[in-house]
Design goal:
Elements: H1 3-7, H2 14-27, H3 33-38, H4 43-47, H5 54-71, H6 75-92
Length: 98
């Protein structure tokens, strides 16, 4: 379901998981460890070197939805977070599907 998305991330995924955890913590109002280590997120600029299509966004959201449903027990909160993540992911799209 997320084969194309996984293919563009270097293995093992430990580093991307760590960086994403730092980013999400900051995004949710926690400490700004991400910004201290990597600077301002500038997510769109950071993703411009990569082709981000609507199909990749759907794969990413599939992964986010799966993770959210496994870790957030308040369904309303999970849905609210997923809506916000969907808007964020939509902003990352820089190319149409082939």
């Amino acid at each position: 379901m997320a084969k194309d998305l996984l293919a563009i991330h270097p293995l093992p995924l430990d580093r991307i998981r760590r960086v994403f955890t730092l980013y999400l913590s900051m995004w949710l109002g926690g400490p700004d460890d991400y910004q201290q280590q990597f600077g301002h997120p500038r997510l769109r600029a950071r993703h411009l070197p990569f082709t981000v299509t609507p199909a990749l966004k759907r794969q990413w959201m599939y992964c986010m939805r799966k993770a959210m449903m496994q870790t957030v027990h308040d369904i309303q909160l999970a849905e609210q977070l997923l809506r916000a993540l969907d808007q964020l992911a939509e902003h990352m799209i820089n190319k149409d599907d082939p």
